[in-house]
Structure formats: C-alpha cells, structure tokens
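Schema walk-through. Below, the input block comes first and the output block second. Nothing else is stored per chain. Lengths vary across the set, and this one has 171 residues.
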Amino acid sequence: MDVAVGSENPVKVAAVERAFERFDPAVTAVGVDSGVPEQPRSVAETVAGAETRAARALAAAEADLGVGLEGGVARFEGAPGLHLIMWAAVTDGERVGRGGGPSLRLPDRVAARIEAGEELGPVMDDLLGTEDVARNEGAAGALTAGLTDREAALREAVACALGPFVTNHYG
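--- output ---
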C-alpha cells in the first residue's frame, strides 16, 4: 500500500507509519500547505487543515491513500480552558475518513499567549527552553510528563480516520 502524508515533519510521518504498520505501507512525505492558518483555532479549522493536507498529498504523489494531520486549539462546551487538539483525514480521492486524537487542556499561561495571537509550538519552546518541540515530544509529551507524546496522539487520530478504509461498517 502506498501512502502519501501531507507533511515532511518526521513526527507526523512516524505517526502514519505506525498507524499503517500492519499493512506494510510505503510512506512518502509530501510538503503541502494546509490551507488554514499556521495555528488553527477551532475544530472546524483543524479538520479542514487535515482534509486539505490529505487531498493535496494524494494529488502530489502516486499513492493509494493521502493522509493529512493537523494540530490546533479549541474550547469545548462544558470543559474549561483551551485545549490542544489533533485531527487526521485519510482519502482515496473519493471517500474521506476523519479521526480525532486526544485533547489536552493547556496551562492557563500557555492559553493566554495563544489567545493573544502566538502559536503553540514557539510558546512551548519558550516555556520549556527548547527548540522545535513540535518535531519531538510535542506539547502533549511535555504536558503529560511523557505519558503520551505527539507521535502517539497523532497515530491515534490516523487510526480513527482509517475506519472507513479497513472495515465494512461505514458502507
């Protein structure tokens, strides 16, 4: 199975490889634009970014499936605070599967900076004294003391988006 990932970020590529591993995939990373702001600020923007990445990756590579992954932030009714969210989309050019990964409440001091217009990655790098946390453990890893990390969270989103392609329950 040939799979195109709409990102060259090694964490996103590894997440797709792990989600597809039982299918022995050939995974190709394709740098594409998400079509949404660098910091998506709602579920709708985050899902749209994942869908756009999946479609553009499929169009740019000779693959059976295109996969898009997008991280964003959102507020949820009934749950206090601003949350980190992750969404994936998988497409074969006709069908689209969508799946969300875990959500994680951001610390208030991080949320305040994001709501003032900053992006999560640089805010986390500043908080942690690191560089490019998004290409490593991500905010998910840092904020859970490694109980999960960005790759695992993104892998779960991809696994959920694969449902329509690996079962007949969506017919």
